[in-house]
Write a structure and sequence with these properties.
YgiQ family radical SAM protein, nine-stranded mixed beta sheet, alpha/beta, three-stranded parallel beta sheet, 661 residues
């Protein structure tokens, strides 16, 4: 493929490349915090190809230098329509810092993992520079950084409440969520001759109105006003109460328009678009991507994030789990947009015919691997729903959770003559595979799917995310009781024996989450040890904008009940909770004994550190595992270098985790 492609097959990044295409001017110029990878998993590439499909002349300026004379911001001149700005596929603060606010030593979206190419708060930095250089040219911001920071939000890294990114960046408009639908309408209006500053009633966009501006009318929308930014600064409970409105309106099919005062300005957030249809999402994935990094990086080294997803297939968007620590639904929505099997198989064929494809697909998945084609049975019920999760505290009786289409898709993928094996690298919602929890599903379908995954799509280890063992913590997380993990493990073990497999179950857990006490972590350690686990895939809770857990972390109040919730916040509290994950390390044993004796939990102490040595590690892998999640980040924004690495004999193959845009 590389030999057949020309430089002009990528969107241009320099004046030379613009001239190769025979263009004298550009319609849109995109600025991104990531290196330019022309692949449907990378947001800037998707937006660039989408705009190109409208007949626009589009260029990309990846990782512009903000530390020199700012030549990157003027080299391509002024676009006819607008500048587009994104911080990249991850929030730049997650990319740049770990949970202890220390600088990371790798950036997964930069060649060779080099650091220093993405500024903190990249969208704001880029946008401000563009407004200074080109004050009369509109700047439109988007991507996950814009989505999660569209209203007053808590910023963990500066430890303060910040206003909408529209205020800090001085941008003219924000597109939140997945941008294909709003951009199509924005471009349509611009090409009709509508001035950019008059475009303010497009769904899934936000703008700042000046005091003298009239509120745009839209007879189809109802309006709601939330507490002002200044009120939030003074009153944490009011700030918390805002989030219930924001989350519910983000996940409603007929949402209200949200207003928030910021000083003398008014933030206006228009309702989201309906979930993309199958035809719409297929069209996005069928755009003419080269599926490769731009040739300019050939001599700089591999891009880690690309290497992870190079041979993976994204089959849907959205997640109806609504986990309180996760940002997926805030960006992609809770309703699932699934690709057709035809579109997926077409992409499989493209990947299978890449010259360096060895026959192994690293992932057939999405934000949650097993939500493909799932939706409400009766649409009118979904139309009225305001619940942030379709499966918490119980699975909605109106939700079709059939795994049959997904099982059939896996089987169709594996029929490709060049595919030796396809893996499921994305996280699987194990709770939906337990009939005692998923009561409306056909148990045989659930078993068929589980057996299909275990026998054909896993390499040694199946990773799932129960996250905790404490019911109060799990309830706040919007996760089911840990008893369902026990049920799943029973089914897992049964299939393991039945099929003569030697698979291991690897659970993910989180420490210092809101509502979690030291005793909860001791219980977690004891219960998982009793099940035969020596934990590896663990992380400390990191507050990110636009989640229930982060609102609680900052305000101390649950946004839905406005009741106080205790959260570990000091470094000492966090480290002590996290130490229970590693009860087996010598340096932690004396502290654990002291702590559990102090709270009178000798029962837990006897489980974790019995006086007599015991043989219990039936689930421990042959290869000794080294934990690397001490400073990990939220599940949907984990970086390649956060993966568990292995040493010693019995080294399992690395399996790539699907990246979410």
């Amino acid at each position: 493929m590389k030999n057949e492609l020309q430089l002009s097959d990528w969107l241009p990044t320099t004046n030379k490349e613009v001239k190769i295409r025979g263009w004298e001017a550009l319609d849109v110029i995109l600025f991104s915090g990531d290196a330019y990878v022309d692949h449907p998993t990378f947001g800037p590439a998707v937006i660039g190809r989408l705009l190109e499909s409208f007949g626009l002349r589009v260029a990309v300026v990846p990782q512009p230098n903000v530390n020199d004379n700012l030549q990157d911001f003027v080299k391509l001149g002024k676009p006819r329509l607008f500048f587009g700005v994104t911080g990249g596929c991850m929030d730049p603060m997650i990319s740049n810092y770990n949970a202890n606010k220390k600088k990371r030593d790798k950036d997964a979206y930069t060649p060779n993992g080099d650091i220093g190419f993405r500024p903190d708060y990249a969208s704001t930095v880029y946008s401000k520079i563009l407004k200074e250089k080109w004050p009369d040219t509109p700047v439109l911001i988007g991507g996950i950084e814009g989505s999660l920071r569209r209203v007053t939000h808590y910023d963990f890294w500066s430890d303060q409440l910040m206003p909408s990114i529209l205020e800090t960046s001085k941008a003219d408009m924000l597109v939140y969520g997945m941008g294909e639908q709003p951009l199509r309408e924005i471009v349509r209006l611009l090409e009709k001759g509508v001035p950019f500053n008059s475009i303010n009633t497009v769904n899934q966009t936000a703008v700042l109105l000046n005091e003298a501006d009239k509120i745009p009318k839209n007879s189809n929308w109802e309006d709601v006003e939330i507490a002002s930014h200044e009120t939030c600064l003074k009153d944490k409970k009011k700030y918390a109460s805002n989030f219930k409105v924001i989350e519910q309106e983000s996940n409603k099919l007929a949402a209200r328009r949200i207003f928030q005062k910021i000083g003398e300005k008014t933030l206006m957030i228009n309702p989201p678009y309906p979930t993309m249809t199958e035809a719409e999402i297929d069209a996005s994935f069928d755009l003419p991507y080269t599926r490769l990094p731009h040739p300019k990086y050939n001599k700089r080294g591999p891009i880690p994030a690309f290497e992870m997803i190079k041979f993976s297939i994204n089959i849907h968007r959205g997640c109806f789990g609504g986990c309180s620590f996760c940002t997926i639904s805030a960006h992609q929505g809770k309703f699932i947009a699934s690709r057709s099997q035809e579109s997926i198989l077409k992409e499989v064929d493209t990947v299978a015919n890449m010259p360096d494809f060895k026959g192994y697909l690293s992932d057939i998945g999405g934000p949650s691997a097993n939500m493909y084609q799932m939706k409400g049975k009766v649409q009118s019920i979904c139309d009225k729903c305001v619940a942030p999760s379709c499966i918490s505290p119980v699975i909605c009786s109106n939700l079709d959770t059939s795994h049959k289409p997904l099982t059939e898709l896996y089987q169709a993928v594996d029929k490709h003559p060049k595919v030796k094996k396809s893996f499921i690298g994305s996280g699987i919602r194990h709770d939906m595979l337990v009939p005692e929890f998923n009561k409306n599903a056909d148990p045989k379908e659930l078993d068929d799917y589980t057996e299909e995954v275990m026998t054909k799509h896993v390499s040694g280890r199946l990773k799932v995310a129960p996250e905790h063992t404490s019911d109060p913590v799990l309830k706040l997380m919007r996760k089911p009781s840990f008893s369902y993990f026990h049920k799943f493990k029973e089914r897992f073990d049964k299939i393991n024996i039945k099929k003569g497999l030697k698979l291991q179950l690897i659970p993910y857990f989180i420490s210092n989450h809101p509502a979690c006490e030291v005793e909860d972590m001791a219980n977690l350690a004891a219960e998982t040890k009793d099940m035969g686990f020596q934990l590896e895939q663990v992380q400390g809770f990191t507050p990110t904008p636009m989640t229930v857990a982060t609102v609680i972390y900052y305000s101390g109040y649950h946004p839905y009940t406005l009741k106080k919730v205790n959260t570990p916040k000091t470094r000492k509290e966090k480290e002590e909770q996290h130490r229970f994950f590693f009860w087996y390390k010598d340096e932690n044993k004396a502290w654990i004994k002291k702590t559990l004796n102090k709270v009178g939990r000798q029962d837990l102490l006897n489980v974790l550190l019995p006086e007599k040595t015991e043989k219990w590690r039936k689930n421990k892998p042959k290869g000794e595992a080294k934990n690397t999640f001490n400073d990990a980040v939220p599940f949907n924004q984990r970086k390649p270098e956060d993966k568990v690495r292995f040493k010693g004999k019995g080294k399992p193959k690395k399996r790539n985790k699907k990246k979410r845009r």
